[in-house]
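Question: does this match?
>
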Amino acid sequence: MSANSTSAAPLVLLECLVAGTSHRDNLAEHEPNLQLDQELELRREADSSFDDWAVQVHTLSEAGGVWLGYLPEGRNETVARLLDAGYRITARLTHKSWEDDWLYLNIEVLLHA
């Protein structure tokens, strides 16, 4: 398969935790619907007053999805720049677990050819 093939597997850009899940009030009700290997949407939050490179992580849904949290600050600049440039980048849920009242979500960030 050539490097230019449109059916090439996506490139894993980043493996990380989803930051800020403890600040999302509705996650306990939505967590049972989160499935391993589920595709997630990344949305740029260019007007964030806290992080110039903020990238939100959402589930995919016709209704806009559930906002799960953010890519971690300090590890998000490359992904933010690629999103700003129009590249197709998604994420995939690779692990989920509860630690006390904190929902631990691990994802892979994927760059599609």
User: Anything to note?
Assistant: The first helix runs from residue 27 to 30.
